[in-house]
Amino acid sequence: MTCESPTHASIAQRANERVAYFNGNIVPESEVAVSFRDRGFKYGEAVFDTARTVRHKPFKLREHVVRLMRSLRYLGIQPPLSVDEFMQQSEAVLARNLHLIGEDEDYWIFQRVSPGTADPCDSSSARKPTVIIECTPLPLAARAPQFRDGARVLIPATRRTPPDALSPRAKTHNYLNLLVADREVRLQDPGAWAILLDHNGNLAEGLGSNIFLVRDGELLTPEQRYVLPGISRDTVMELAQQESIPARETSLDLFDAFTADECFLTSTSLCLLPVSSVNGRAIGQGVPGPVSQRLIDAYSRLLDFDFVAQYLNKLA
Amino acid sequence: MTCESPTHASIAQRANERVAYFNGNIVPESEVAVSFRDRGFKYGEAVFDTARTVRHKPFKLREHVVRLMRSLRYLGIQPPLSVDEFMQQSEAVLARNLHLIGEDEDYWIFQRVSPGTADPCDSSSARKPTVIIECTPLPLAARAPQFRDGARVLIPATRRTPPDALSPRAKTHNYLNLLVADREVRLQDPGAWAILLDHNGNLAEGLGSNIFLVRDGELLTPEQRYVLPGISRDTVMELAQQESIPARETSLDLFDAFTADECFLTSTSLCLLPVSSVNGRAIGQGVPGPVSQRLIDAYSRLLDFDFVAQYLNKLA
Amino acid sequence: MTCESPTHASIAQRANERVAYFNGNIVPESEVAVSFRDRGFKYGEAVFDTARTVRHKPFKLREHVVRLMRSLRYLGIQPPLSVDEFMQQSEAVLARNLHLIGEDEDYWIFQRVSPGTADPCDSSSARKPTVIIECTPLPLAARAPQFRDGARVLIPATRRTPPDALSPRAKTHNYLNLLVADREVRLQDPGAWAILLDHNGNLAEGLGSNIFLVRDGELLTPEQRYVLPGISRDTVMELAQQESIPARETSLDLFDAFTADECFLTSTSLCLLPVSSVNGRAIGQGVPGPVSQRLIDAYSRLLDFDFVAQYLNKLA
Amino acid sequence: MTCESPTHASIAQRANERVAYFNGNIVPESEVAVSFRDRGFKYGEAVFDTARTVRHKPFKLREHVVRLMRSLRYLGIQPPLSVDEFMQQSEAVLARNLHLIGEDEDYWIFQRVSPGTADPCDSSSARKPTVIIECTPLPLAARAPQFRDGARVLIPATRRTPPDALSPRAKTHNYLNLLVADREVRLQDPGAWAILLDHNGNLAEGLGSNIFLVRDGELLTPEQRYVLPGISRDTVMELAQQESIPARETSLDLFDAFTADECFLTSTSLCLLPVSSVNGRAIGQGVPGPVSQRLIDAYSRLLDFDFVAQYLNKLA
Amino acid sequence: MTCESPTHASIAQRANERVAYFNGNIVPESEVAVSFRDRGFKYGEAVFDTARTVRHKPFKLREHVVRLMRSLRYLGIQPPLSVDEFMQQSEAVLARNLHLIGEDEDYWIFQRVSPGTADPCDSSSARKPTVIIECTPLPLAARAPQFRDGARVLIPATRRTPPDALSPRAKTHNYLNLLVADREVRLQDPGAWAILLDHNGNLAEGLGSNIFLVRDGELLTPEQRYVLPGISRDTVMELAQQESIPARETSLDLFDAFTADECFLTSTSLCLLPVSSVNGRAIGQGVPGPVSQRLIDAYSRLLDFDFVAQYLNKLA
Amino acid sequence: MTCESPTHASIAQRANERVAYFNGNIVPESEVAVSFRDRGFKYGEAVFDTARTVRHKPFKLREHVVRLMRSLRYLGIQPPLSVDEFMQQSEAVLARNLHLIGEDEDYWIFQRVSPGTADPCDSSSARKPTVIIECTPLPLAARAPQFRDGARVLIPATRRTPPDALSPRAKTHNYLNLLVADREVRLQDPGAWAILLDHNGNLAEGLGSNIFLVRDGELLTPEQRYVLPGISRDTVMELAQQESIPARETSLDLFDAFTADECFLTSTSLCLLPVSSVNGRAIGQGVPGPVSQRLIDAYSRLLDFDFVAQYLNKLA
Fold this sequence. Notes:
6 copies of one chain form a homohexamer.
Chain A: H1 11-15, E1 19-22, E2 25-28, E3 33-35, H2 39-42, E4 47-54, E5 57-59, H3 61-75, H4 83-97, E6 107-114, E7 130-137, H5 140-149, E8 151-154, H6 176-186, E9 193-194, E10 205-206, E11 209-215, E12 218-221, H7 231-242, E13 247-249, H8 254-258, E14 262-267, E15 271-278, E16 281-282, H9 290-303, H10 307-312
């Protein structure tokens, strides 16, 4: 059988290869290949979610799997595993891959589901879904300079797909809208993060990241309808409440961004990354700003782990 | 190596299996599987096109490959083969699959390209694209009743993705917007065709099909900006000109549809399929209407083949 | 005088005919006919409201009349009667019609006002409004199966008229937008309820009904700007508060509907009708869901009447 | 039977009363009254059209009836009469009313159709449509000053209902959007004509009138999708072609209006009325402008009648 | 040097001329002239703010200067003075102009900043900003009748510039959108106030004024995103809180305006001006309504000054 | 009198200073300063236009002045000079400035008009407009590298002001929308040209430039409604017709840009500047493309002047 992954790996090599869950079995990653007729390939008709480990333990894995279930429900795909099964298999895949990363490193754990190769025009065709659970090391070194200097955010001209075409709240394999926007931005600044506007001209989200602003001591983030409701985004909202920092979802636009006191991004892997500029205009007086710092501290306490130090330790 | 396609096929079985071009080789379809890290799978970041055969010969193959090139260009993916190479390999794959279908049957020939597994965050990663060329038999029998009775068109509430989010003019593996709309319609009527409205409320297109209306002898079809510019759509526009049927692209809405004299769909596989109703309301006086019939006749002459008869012959 | 209602009814028949208030008098319904020059007929320039009886007594009649007054004010029509007069006449009409329905049945009581036949181009023409108050039996039997099985909601492609064209918050005789949408849906499923999206793609309302979703124990309903603010909708919001069910108005879209735990409709006649599916996709685990049931119970206590049983008793 | 029209008219009075066609009979207008349950009254669910007479003969009556048929088709109402029957009955009603106006006066001839009182929830209810054909004298005197001085056009804030809510191309009894806009304007200037913008901010139409601009010798009028395609609008387009005046449909906005060389309105009754100002800003150098005058002359030749003189003769 | 202001004023005249701060000096107003190459002139690339005096003392001057700073930040113009410097110079200019108005009169104090004449294509050109601080007497007499009779509000067809083109929250010298709308309204009624709708059809703001509605005892004002966040608007919101009047920002449209119990405008110079009609339709039962009166009283207590009397005293 | 321009220039300096027309007189530029109360300064309420010289002679000066007149008309400002007077004064100003540039250099000639200082609230205030006519040398050296390498176009997130807020077809002093977009782009690439999208997501225009695409031999440019109708744009359309290059106005979006064969900008000063990339993606195979070259040649013949060489000669 042909696949673009090398198939002649020696056993020795295999010992250094990560494994993944694939339709019921845990196998070397190089053996995880989907048919070109898989609807996840042909149509991007698939959903995924991704938790991260913190010191080699998954963080909020259940919340991520529950969100995966919601994405499946939106697309009308039957869940092939229960929440508990997804969690167990995720833990199992993780356990077998941990020896491949250093103590100071961590993994993303992805769950992916497509409906398989079933022909939509043929209701008799068996609907055997494709399920993959896999680990990918966090790109700590690549992002370390951003934790030192702050992230640069650029707003592309490409707008986020509106909810009446396809809801941004489901995490699917249809990423071209986000990728096109991301490429638009990276051609100007390879290290920048794209944050798209929604079709009303409000700040929405980037490829896997949510945005927050701080103004007059209040924490603000775009409304849920136009973005993936990030687990880290939820975490930050909860931390703000604990810290008595007023926080709310609201419409935010470029005026808000340019006149904000602080700005940061959240994502599963980033936790919380301060932003130093939006469209080339400096935000606040150096990063992290005071509210961002309080939330970083609270986040670290919640994790019982200094996630910023983990990144900064990878600085060349 | 594990894949959801059967891997233990005997040689005897293989003789009955279709083959496909896969990254330089022609192999049995069951061996065509892409890594789960292929961006075509993870993000639907891939383009495709599809010609059909007419009596076992490809029709307008060059036009389809040229359109594939344009889709690649829009997404910024380097073409892995030239137009001529795509055509040669398509012919080669076809030649090796023709013995598997009857004389009265025909194939779709798909070309698919993704950028492969390259990490977008890692500019040093080799960008080795994934290229697949494959044949799929036309679903003649399934559609035969529609050529007899006319197609039923339903307009879903889901709107076509607007061009400032992702252009409908590129034929990509991001099909969820169209699939969600299609499912919405098929849950009401499994045999219906969805035609989506664009974000302005005008008729746009369906999953792989363009729509035409006839009003007072004039042929009308939605503007190019909001739809994939179908090769069959172009063919019909050219035939109209030959037949001195006035024809133009314009904004069309539900008023136009409900008050049209005739309506039909075009696609590579359908060529031209008359529509008997839109949203449950009969269009015209039976199918095909007179202008539709003239265009069917002209289309058949162009193909030197009665494509309607091919479908009708499959009626149970 | 000619009218399409029979005018040669014998006195015996009259005894079985409902009566209505018409411009100052209470007369048999067959004598209530408006000039073809009435602006309510020519332009749909009229407003109405409708309360229902509960065990033959009007429920929240005052609230309905107050809303009628607001609709009149929006259109700039002078109220021909005071709130109290509308209530008295409504009670009077009801009293004279009650003998025509069974004890287990109930009435809608409609108030309708148009500006009459005055010529808008002629400021001197007398503006004598048309006022009608009438009773219509509730369609208990027709809807009984829906109280047993849950309502099926379909979302049509037709969008609700935007407020800068004509506000959905006034209850007028211009119902074509809602009727066109309703017909679109009923041609697919004659027993389905249409719920339109507004021009932003959010859930709005149906022909006389409001929609609610339940998610994670919270009650959600579309914002008031895009819908008629239903009296039953208000009632449910108040009951939720009494029951300590968190409830709020917010933007809701198809993602919310497809991933909701429960869904129901409210209207004057329905009170609260659980929804079993939206666009053919099952909502929750059977109807009514637990929050819906609590609200049904609270509603019944408020009415001191089991409105669900009234419907179910009419099952054939 | 009660109706707000006087029913005790003496025979002598009757001789001076206009008659109308009402569901198969020609009767005095005072006897034409529709049930309050007629859907044309309750919902404005009805369509109409209106031709005018020129020297007591109907002008383009067939074109108006054909348009009526298209409006019926859009709403899904079965035509109760054929085109020829509508024309015959219209001629008959006209013939019996001509003695009531002067030789220098003319009539509108309206055809109106509603589906009658059938209950939409009850498919068994007989669908007996309501059909009315009636004559109304043209308001020549009231408009005479505008033919002398030019019309004043005001653009209200209210936008024309968008086609994905309800198409402006069907002439229905749902006139509130146009009436609300008209009232908005008349409260500022009782003699002004409202021309609404569509939801894109382009000039659309007014209550029964189309707008034209002249710029650099070219005739421009809004695109058909957003307006009722007026018969007089079509007539002017044809006259322009005969007169070799370049003419086309296009998007037009306030910049176009304010910088136009000439502007005029068309409608069945107006034929062509020059506009002297838009939003209080003078258009051109006095009315009618040269292109307008050429079209007035051509229109008069087509009618073989000086329609402007007919209006001006009514100046007090 | 030539300027359209008279330059040959005698010293005697000068004693009666107001002075202004201009780039570091306080000079007679007639000497304050900017180069035609000043970007504030060529492009309207400038920001301003304006406080008013109350009995010759500035009110909330700091708040106005802080808002000026935010406008500068949005446009990326470096503040040429600090907040304190702007306040000091404003006080200084005021002090030197007070002798020119009566005790019963008051001033606007404007701060204006442009980037000066620097060529945007030439990064080497020195960026020397233009700074002007000036006093203008409040137009008390002109507005006095409106405090007696209530303001008339008209809604123009022109929509407020959307935030993704240019944010209405910065107070800049680009006023054409507001001026065009204002002129549209004043050509109908020279004494009327224009309140524009935003691009969603909601009430936004007028040229320098915010709008409030009162409905069922609750105070409502448009959301901040589409309007300049007025200092007086903030003041009224704070006073409402003190007075226990429920108040919130929300989407408001013409339905809200026409059915409101009360309506008023706020601005720096007006403080709070009751509105008697919107689009010619009376609001409430005479001005000021009870909630408006309570807020006027509270405002006067805050100012320790009867601002309404100041206006009314100027009635001719 | 104080002004930020130096006022103590010696006579010797004056001989090297350009002059300008200012309200009736020709004076040194340093004496052209407008009151801070000029509405052109306070509100950007002013219009301008600009022709260029070709070998020291104005090109299409009349066309530019006619367009100025149209801009005045849109804003309702009375033209202070006739077309001929504007042309004469422009020629006169030019004649007196020509000695200050080299033979191989050329000028822009600007006409600017504001309504002066009249108070809009005070109809009695004299409306004395401000009129300025001035010369500015073309930035030949700064742009020379772009004529060698092609221009880089970037599409900002900021959208062009929609026509129902303020028409882009009038050339006014309200440039902030364009400046904000331009700055957004220059912060990424100081040498790039911003081309904004309109509110529908179509390509519109940049700060003073129009965009053209070439696809399959056809010339395409955005529709006039959303852009300033450039004189150079018109010139190119006329040249295309002469050269038998098919050309039309149409909606164009990023798909069109990315898949175009050629792209170029036009403006008064540029004439025609080839574009090498849009959003960092190369357009075509090197600049100028073949159609662009044909149009450059035709433009040069029309001018009888090699405008490209003029730029290239300034390369350092």
